Amino acid sequence: MKFPLRFELNITMRVLIFLIFFLLFLACPLIARGTGPHNDIILNTNIRCSGCHQTLFLNEITPEFNDATDNICLSCHKREKTLFSHPVGVKARHLFSEEMPLSSDGRLMCITCHTFHSSFYMPILKKKVYLRRIVMEKNFCLRCHRQDLPDKIVVSY
């Protein structure tokens, strides 16, 4: 029995659409893993989203941060004592904006000022930095600190 050409094209289109959706479905977990510089795809580490973000039932990731994020940062970055390396674990004296998160008990964390998800190039340092806000001279520090800072600062990240 010979099928009409229209029926054969209809089956071909259905199979083609099914294959496209199937391939997209397979690619979703790879896309969801992220492409930032601090994830396990690029650096080949064991850092996962749940290392910094809180998880809910069935490991659903939330935008809120857990309080152990500093441990992840300090597993690679050394706690150096330079002029502009800010201490973590210090209780904040005033409220911060939502874009600069604190720990659940109001303490500074690495991610208060830094972010893993984006970066910008700083010509003075000749490298990318992962800060939540652009650093322009001492304005970044003066968002929180009102005391006088030197006119010229040397930033070390």
UniProtKB/TrEMBL annotation:
Family matches, as InterPro entries: Multihaem_cyt_sf, Tetrahaem_cytochrome
Coiled-coil residue spans: none
Location relative to the cell: Cell envelope
SUPFAM superfamilies documented for this protein: Multiheme cytochromes
Organism classification: unclassified sequences, metagenomes, ecological metagenomes
Cytoplasm as UniProt keyword: no
UniProt entry tagged with the keyword Secreted: no
Name by which UniProt lists this protein: Tetrahaem cytochrome domain-containing protein
Key words of the record: Electron transport, Heme, Iron, Metal-binding, Transport
One term of GO molecular function: metal ion binding
Pfam families named in the record: Cytochrom_c3_2 (PF14537)
Cellular component terms per the entry's GO annotation: cell envelope
Annotated ranges, domain Tetrahaem cytochrome: 45-145
Cited PROSITE patterns: PROKAR_LIPOPROTEIN
